[in-house]
Amino acid sequence: MDLSFSHFPFDLVLFGLIAAFLALRLRGILGTRVGVEPASPAAPAPRPGPVIEGRAEPPAALTDYDVPAPETRVGQVLGAIAGQEREFVPAQFLRGVEVSFRQVVQAFGAGDRAMLRERLTAEAFSAFDAAIQSREQAGETQKSEVRAIGGLAIVDAAIDQMAGAPCARIDVRIVSDQISLTLDKDGHPVAGTDAVTEFSDLWTFERLLGVSIGGAAWRLAASRSA
């Protein structure tokens, strides 16, 4: 019997061993990726950490508050107001103006007289109410939306006398991005645009010093384009 290995297919056996090894190796890798391996204990919920780029919304831009320096004329008036109203802080006042501005614009568009009566002086409310009545009689609707407020700046301040009591008045310039559109009864635009537009307004706020009144302490007394 010829026991020589001259005709034995060593190359086929070698290739078969290599193929088997690769198959086992591939199975091990795939098992790791799809969870074939035993599951590890559940990890606790991750705590907030660094934001992964591309997975988070950009932070909202902060509103710029411009307060006159204490040594300026307006700054001295603000100091006099703080002397009579211990809780008055100009920056906090502007934060309140920002909230009030959004509420008043929205209330005017919606015809919310209750909100306007709370935020406006009697004279200012009469003017806003007349505009709403005119709009309602014409069958018009108003779309008003404040998209962003770019900045608020105190540009003037004064202390006058009203009904025997000191009354503080502060003028604030407000720069905002808004949608302001008036539609007729058929839904056709008659004024404004549905595109976001930058507005610059000058609002005057007032309050009686040393007097506790219901509702908002600072009320809108006048508004006009800046």
TrEMBL record:
<keyword id="KW-0472">Membrane</keyword>
<dbReference type="Pfam" id="PF04280">
    <property type="entry name" value="Tim44"/>
</dbReference>
<keyword id="KW-0812">Transmembrane</keyword>
<feature type="domain" description="Tim44-like">
    <location>
        <begin position="74"/>
        <end position="225"/>
    </location>
</feature>
<protein>
    <submittedName>
        <fullName>Tim44 domain-containing protein</fullName>
    </submittedName>
</protein>
<feature type="transmembrane region" description="Helical">
    <location>
        <begin position="6"/>
        <end position="24"/>
    </location>
</feature>
<dbReference type="InterPro" id="IPR032710">
    <property type="entry name" value="NTF2-like_dom_sf"/>
</dbReference>
<keyword id="KW-1133">Transmembrane helix</keyword>
<dbReference type="InterPro" id="IPR007379">
    <property type="entry name" value="Tim44-like_dom"/>
</dbReference>
